Amino acid sequence: MTVEKALAILDDLRAWNNTPPPDEEAVEALSLAISTLRAQQDAEKNEPLTLGELRQMDGEPVWVEPYLAVPDGWYLVDLTDMALRRRHSVIWIDKPNAASKFTAYRRPPVKEE
To answer: Full-prediction pTM beyond 0.70?
Structure first.
């Protein structure tokens, strides 16, 4: 079963349990399950980070796939110098067109074969 199908079933159960007289405990439990599953779905997404998101991640690791001669891998966000750093490699993120030079993710993207 997919998460989407489970969410649809839980939504239907919550609506059914919310009809008069409502089973308030069941409605609360179903609401909690729905919000937990939706949060898990959001956490599993691994969209490319924007420059705005990177600017909120000082000191945090990001996975980078550059388009230039810089190697793929984990980098630390360094907002002091507006750069992504790893041993022997720096990607400047405050330069014009910086976003077109690399793609940063919260974790390595899954390669589709």
So the answer is: no
Q: Which of 31, 24, 39 is nearest to 10 (CA)?
A: 31
Q: How far apart are CA 24 and CA 42, in angstroms?
A: 27
Mean pLDDT by 10 residues, the chain (113 residues): 77 75 76 81 79 91 82 91 88 75 84 62
Q: Are 75 and 85 in contact (CB under 8 A)?
A: yes
DSSP for residue 74: E
Q: Tell me the C-alpha distance between 7 and 38, whole Å.
A: 8
- At CA 68, angle to CA 87 and CA 102, rounded to 5? 80
CA atoms within 13 A on the CB side of 92: 5
